[in-house]
């Protein structure tokens, strides 16, 4: 880039000899400007380049698909070496009968909308309208937050109620199971006489407080022990009775 320091030498920077003419010096300066920064290219040189480009375009013939098809020189000529046996050949339609295709580039005519500024979305929003919109939005957000909190707490309460219901059902099932065990257990030894209550003289389960499991099981164990002692006493009496009967029979046989 062109610099303007203390060691600036225009001839060295532009790459020309010191005995160059002023016109060549200006041309070298323009080329240096074009190489370094196209935006610093002089307007006069730009206008001259545009005029040169327009002259070049005018000298060149405009060739488009439509002109290529409509030129008589480009139409298909009959081949003199070919011999057609059919003398009733219908001539083909001329290319000029077909509609001409539009040019590739359409001229752009500026419309009134091009000169107008785009609409501003906030031009009709006043301070009052903005505050109303802001408060409405804040209210909606607050109501949504309250609804979410209420739904969360209702969900927690519902889950807690379900847990409580489950505990109550579990306790009821345990009580029913205890009563079933109490009334349906068979006698120890499997004699099939009846349930535990019938075999050992237990009281009915409704006379005991089944909510206190420790007291219920304590009473049950005491009753079982008492029943086992009675059963052992009965077995001892039966053994003594059998022994006395055998002794009497033996005495009778000895007398005979």
Features:
256 residues, rod-shaped, mainly alpha, DnaJ_domain, J_dom_sf, disordered N terminus, J domain-containing protein, 2 domains, single chain, 60% helix
Report the β-strand fraction as a percent range. under 5%
Structural class: mainly alpha
For the record, the count of structural domains works out to 2
Number of helices: 8
Average residue pLDDT: 64
* H/E element sequence: HHHHHHHH
Main sheet: strands, sense, barrel: none
Over the alpha carbons, how many angstroms does the gyration radius reach?
A: 61 Å
Q: Report the strand count.
A: 0
Estimate the global geometry from the Cα principal axes: rod-shaped
Report helical residue fraction: 55-70%
Distance between the termini: 157 Å
Low-confidence segments, ≥5 residues, pLDDT <50?
Answer: 1-6, 186-216
Protein name: J domain-containing protein
Domain J: 9-82
Organism: Rhizoclosmatium globosum
Biased composition (Polar residues): 71-98
Overall description:
This protein has 256 residues and is mainly alpha-helical. The chain has two domains: 1-52, no CATH class; 127-255, no CATH class. Helices cover 60% and strands 0% of the residues. The protein contains eight helices and no strands. The protein is rod-shaped and about 170 Å long. The N and C termini lie far apart (157 Å). Residues 58-70 have a biased composition (Low complexity). Residues 71-98 have a biased composition (Polar residues). InterPro entries: DnaJ_domain, J_dom_sf. Residues 49-122 are annotated as: Disordered. Residues 9-82 form the J domain.
């Amino acid at each position: 880039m062109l610099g303007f320091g203390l060691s600036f030498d225009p001839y060295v920077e532009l790459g020309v000899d010191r005995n160059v003419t002023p016109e060549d010096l200006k041309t070298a300066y323009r080329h240096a400007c074009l190489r370094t920064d196209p935006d610093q290219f002089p307007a006069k040189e730009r206008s001259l380049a545009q005029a040169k480009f327009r002259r070049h375009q005018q000298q060149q013939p405009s060739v488009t698909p439509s002109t290529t098809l409509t030129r008589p020189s480009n139409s298909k000529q009959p081949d003199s070496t070919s011999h057609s046996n059919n003398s009733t050949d219908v001539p083909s339609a001329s290319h000029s009968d077909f509609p001409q295709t539009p040019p590739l580039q359409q001229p752009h005519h500026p419309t009134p909308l091009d000169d107008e500024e785009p609409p501003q979305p906030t031009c009709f929003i006043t301070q009052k309208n903005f505050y109303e919109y802001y408060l409405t939005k804040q209210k909606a957000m607050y109501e949504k937050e309250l609804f979410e909190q209420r739904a969360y707490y209702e969900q927690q309460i519902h889950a807690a109620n379900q847990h409580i219901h489950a505990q109550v059902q579990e306790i009821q099932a345990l009580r029913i199971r205890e009563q079933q065990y109490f009334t349906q257990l068979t006698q120890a030894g499997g004699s099939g006489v009846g349930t535990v209550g019938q075999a050992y003289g237990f009281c009915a389960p409704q006379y005991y407080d089944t909510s206190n499991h420790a007291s219920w099981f304590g009473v049950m164990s005491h009753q079982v022990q008492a029943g086992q002692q009675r059963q052992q006493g009965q077995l001892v009496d039966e053994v003594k009775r059998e022994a006395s009967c055998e002794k009497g029979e033996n005495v009778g046989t000895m007398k005979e």
